[in-house]
Amino acid sequence: MTTDRPDFTESATAVRPGRVQLEAGYTVDRSDAGTEHSIGETLARVGIVPGTELRLGAGSYGVVSPADGPRRTGLREASIGVKVELPAGRLAEDLALLAGTAVPVPSDLGDERWSPSAVLAGAWTAGAVGLGANAGYAFTPADGIGGEWLASAAAGV
């Protein structure tokens, strides 16, 4: 079983057809600006056809404690998307494209607009060591005109 939670790097393999994989996680982010907790981070991965999965994410419960302001709590955006395995060739042992969007929820912590994104996920192994890497782009609806590039990597033994 290959999971996509609770880290930020998505795997390059899809769940097999007819299978449902439920994943959940918890994230804490501490900085000079304050502390942020995301509780739940639930993702349902549903295998549709070989190499393709449907991804349904429930909005996490968030607790934001700014260093200079009142604490806020509420639901974060839900998500919907797909993962499609791609022919890897020489680029990687496994390769997949993830496309999806954040789904707005009424909350002090959630965004009020849809936020589409696309990510290319790759995976490599060398003996007992595995490496996964992602690169992508997420449209940022806050200003209505921009977005942000995304990159992450994870290693495991």
Descriptive report:
The chain has 157 residues and is an all-beta fold. It has one domain (20-156). 0% of the residues lie in helices and 62% in strands. The chain has strands at 20-31, 34-49, 52-57, 61-66, 72-75, 78-86, 94-103, 115-126, 129-140, 146-156. Strands 1, 2, 3, 4, 5, 6, 7, 8, 9 and 10 form a 10-stranded antiparallel β-sheet that branches. Strand 9 and strand 10 form a beta hairpin. The radius of gyration is 17 Å and the shape is globular. The relative contact order is 0.18. The model has no long low-confidence stretch (mean pLDDT 89).
Short summary of the structure?
This protein is mostly beta strands and 157 residues long. It has strands at residues 20-31, 34-49, 52-57, 61-66, 72-75, 78-86, 94-103, 115-126, 129-140, 146-156.
> What's the pLDDT, averaged over the residues?
89
Give the SSE order as H and E letters: EEEEEEEEEE
> How many structural units, i.e. domains?
1
Q: How is the biggest beta sheet arranged? A: 10 strands, antiparallel
- Distance between the ends: 15 Å
Q: What share of the residues does DSSP label as strand, in percent?
A: over 45%
User: DSSP helix count?
Assistant: 0
The count of DSSP E runs of length 2 or more, i.e. the number of strands, is: 10
Question: Could you tell me the radius of gyration in angstroms?
Answer: 17 Å
What is the share of helical residues?
under 10%
Helix/sheet category: mainly beta
Low-confidence stretches: none
Shape, per Cα inertia axes = globular
